[in-house]
Amino acid sequence: MASGFTLRVEGGEPTRLPLGRVTVGGGSAVDVALPGLDGAVLVLTVSASHVYCRHAHSDRRFELDGLATASARLERGDRVVVQGVEIVIEGEQVDAALEDTLELVRPRAQQSSLQSAYLDARASRETSRLQGMLDVVFRAAGLVAHVGDIDELARGLVTLVSEALSASAAWCLRFDGDGAVQQLASSAVVDDVRQPSRTVLARVFAQRVSLLTLDAERDPRLRGADSLVDTQARSIACAPIFDGERVIGVLYAELRGAHGVPQPRDLELLESIASFAGVALSRADLIAALEQREVQTHLLVHDMKNPLGAIRGALDLLALDEGAGETARRARDLIGGAYGRLEGYINDILAAAQLEEGQLSAQREVVDGQALREQLLARWSSSAQLVDVTLAAQLVAPLSRLRWDARLMERVMDNLIENALQHAPRGSAIIISIAADGDGDGAADGSVRVEVRDAGPGVPQAQRERVFEKFGRLTESAGRGLGLYFCRLAVEAHGGSIRIEGAPGDNRLVLILPNAVVEPS
User: Fold this and answer.
1) Which pLDDT does position 280 carry in this prediction?
2) Residue 353: CB atoms within 10 Å
């Protein structure tokens, strides 16, 4: 059926526009050729009531009443200027197409996004409509930005659809890969009668269309056991939710009575909310997949401790072979060093996960400070010698006993020393210092200041927070990005803080632990 719209260029003869998708421009590769235009210029989607217009090139604009835009909804009397040529929209606006078919259906390419719906509202020069569209934009953006839980997100979408369309009932549903439906949220009490039509949902999934049905009772395509007549819904609007080009869900609204006669604008608004829902649901799916992957990673890492135990046992047996040659001893030392690093990686991952989930807390006990100093020197002096670095540790008197979680803090100290050894230049020194913290009120609450100083290049001021984040690294070769993250979690479990101080050549990692000084008895 022909539409009631025509195009006319600067006083020329009018050109009638057929319903559907129409390309307008100059040359032969267009549906409607107009003088003065070069190539395909505009893409029009023509219905019986409106003309939806966008520039053929997404990075270009045309003018509508002096306002530059890439897309707009045109009505009778609108004047569009493109490539310096003025095009006038003429004709009658009727709902004949909807009246004849009882239904408006739009394929994927013609469906509105939130941006295009907003631009249409702005171009319409209707203040109330623009304000309503802005409200939808802000509320939809808030759902995407702040809601990660899928169920909560679905409830927010249903509320938004119900209020924006004055719907008597609304649903947010998901499709699996085969088109089976899972209900996420509903504003209606769902029973055997009050539920979305499976016929309509199957059509939306298979054909990737949005649709607006004016009168289910009069529409012969919806009659039968599974029809909108069974649900007593007079009319519905239904818009698919996309992840890329894949349909992953649908927003479905009953518009019975409460909103008057549905209009194409209702479907546009639902499509625009669905475009935002696609972003939000895809994001929520990604978060859920990452969380599941992290759980699987932790299980795998935990299982890695079993073969590590076998390696440790084999190393102990090799150590008993006093007759081993120099090559065997060096190989044994290399394997032992690699074993120690791998065990440290695994322990960091598992302990960081426990600290994140609140399953591991600091269990304070009294630690001999002098014994701690000697243990650190004994454990790390050989590694320091291999890279030609001097390792020194000092316990500032009268601090001789400490109160902290010995197991956690031992790993924290190991991580800090290992980090310093990676960056300290040859011939330099690493100094470990443990002292009562005298900054501010630190001494009053029994705070201890632990400092590991090296002569490395240090960390730029702007990056000093990043290195304590999970997988936060300055370069691809800067380790696994978990050591300092674990240190931060362990120190915070003690109620303390960790930071980087100093400058290139005098780099310092500093821990402040409150209530860690044991007063002499």
Assistant:
1) 76
2) 19
pTM, rounded to two decimals: 0.42
Is the separation of the CB atoms in 29 and 43 below 8 Å?
no
Predicted pLDDT at 228: 43
Instruction: Please determine, for residue 99, whether its predicted confidence score (pLDDT) is greater than 50.
Output: no
Sole residue written with tokens 């990005």: 481
Domains of the chain are 1-94 (2.60.200.20), 102-283 (3.30.450.40), 304-356 (no CATH), 365-513 (3.30.565.10)
User: Which of these ranges, 33-42, 184-193, 391-400, has the smallest mean pLDDT?
Assistant: 184-193
Between the CA of residue 458 and those of 417, 418, 422, 477, what are the distances in Å?
Answer: 14, 14, 11, 15
> pLDDT per residue over 418-455, tens digit each?
889 888 999 999 999 998 876 544 455 788 999 999 99
Spatial separation of the C-alpha atoms in residues 18 and 357, rounded to whole Å: 62
Q: What are phi and psi of 230, to 5 degrees?
A: -65, -30
Write the DSSP string, 326-383: HHHHHHHHHHHHHHHHHHHHHHHHHHHHHHHTT------EEEEHHHHHHHHHHHHHHH
Phi, psi for residue 237 in degrees, rounded to 5: -125, 140
Question: Does the structure show a pLDDT above 80 at 250?
Answer: yes
Angstrom distance (rounded) from CA 491 to CA 499: 11
3-state secondary structure string across 369-397:
HHHHHHHHHHHHHHHHHHCCCEEEEEECC
Q: Which residues contact 178 (CB under 8 A, 6 or more apart)?
A: none
d(CA 316, CA 395): 33
pLDDT above 70: percentage of residues in the chain: 67
Nearest to 391 by CA among 402, 401, 408, 379: 379
Q: Which of 337, 406, 338 is nearest to 371 (CA)?
A: 406
The answer to whether 97 and 90 are in contact (CB under 8 A) is: no
Q: Is the pLDDT of residue 78 over 50?
A: yes
Is 60 exceeded by the pLDDT of residue 354? yes
Identity (one letter) of the amino acid at 322? E
Distance, CA of 213 to CA of 151 (rounded, Å): 28
Tally of residues, the chain:
521
Strand, coil or helix: what is 179? coil
Supply φ then ψ for residue 214, to 5 degrees. -75, -40
Query: What is residue 246's three-state secondary structure?
Result: strand
Q: What are phi and psi of 308, to 5 degrees?
A: -65, -35
Q: Encode pLDDT of 5-33 as tens digits.
A: 888 887 678 888 876 678 888 877 788 88
- CA–CA distance, 298 with 223 (Å, rounded to integer): 53
- 154's tokens: 């679905």
CA-wise closest residue to 161 among 173, 146, 148 = 173
What is the per-residue pLDDT for 452?
94
Omega of the bond leading into 460 within 30 degrees of 0 (cis): no
